[in-house]
Design a protein that fits this description.
single chain, about 375 residues, alpha+beta, five-stranded antiparallel sheet, 14 helices, about 15% strand, globular
Length: about 375
Amino acid sequence: MSTINPACARIDEAIEAFGIGSAINGRLLQKDPYGNGHINDTFRLRYETPDHSEKNYILQRMNHDIFRNPPLLMENIVNVTEHLRGIILSRGGDADRETLNVLKTRDGASFFRDTDNNYWRGFPFIERSICLEKVGSAKDFYDSAVAFGNFQKMLADYPATTLHETIPNFHNTPSRFRDFQQAVQNGDRERAALAEKEIAFALDRASETAVLTDLLDRGELPLRVTHNDTKLNNILFDRDTRKALCIIDLDTVMPGLSLYDFGDSIRFGASTGAEDEIDLDKVTLDLSLFEAFTKGYLEGCDGSLTAREVEMLPMGAKLMTYECGIRFLADFLTGDTYFKIHRANHNLDRARTQFKLVADMEAKWNQMAAIVQKCSL
């Protein structure tokens, strides 16, 4: 087996707590690290059943340094997935493949706390599924948009205020801007000098940071259940049909704005450059991908968004990109303590790509608005 995080030393204790082998009368064949996630430690458990077939499960050690209250996080996930399961079944869908299903421990709990105070959870593995790390075609991006829009529609009547904030102020742009201001004030002076243009770019747009939260406060935008991390790689696609199948990574499901989910998808998927691209000439907003996602998202939402939400979709894209940029920049100024880096000035490079994308959105603002209007007809 591959080398694993020392914090996962109690994995056998966790496997025993969930009692998977006993439940299926199976024999554990392998337990291997799985996937490319940077937050939680994920393992794939492979079992042999009495008929010599195989069953697979996902076991995760939750990162309680980032998610400070795993029991409340799991309460969110259990309640949301059970709600989704009910809707999928009522539609005649396959609820074992179209939503995550939380495994219960031998004691009936949704998580297990080991003797080192690490928290574990499990899910049945969704067979014949694949995960895409980047947009390969407009169709993939469109299909992902339909999936995220459908996720929003299925949760449209879920009482958002009953969910816990797993990371407070996660997409609160004014709060993120205040954190950025503190980083500018208290961060490394030499790094600040190196990022002078980027700091000025961010400060010049201070007046826009509260646009969406002000609309929420005035009741012009509804509070919704949102995923809050709508990157393409948080969707499982059917391996055979290539259709979007299931939304995963539900740790940040909490109250928010639909514009957060739309905007983060555009930020991640409609850029022509990598998130840490050094050559900024390669970084632009691909309007064809923006249109593909907008069309798919609105189709998936199927009329569940208000007219004001639809109107503000371009602002969602811009603010989520800007917010990510100031988070990268703040981390650079304060010594790279949050985002993992792989080279000198990595977080500064990331901030520059986000700000270049923001600038390109501003240059294409009228075109973005026209696309949204066309897709909403």
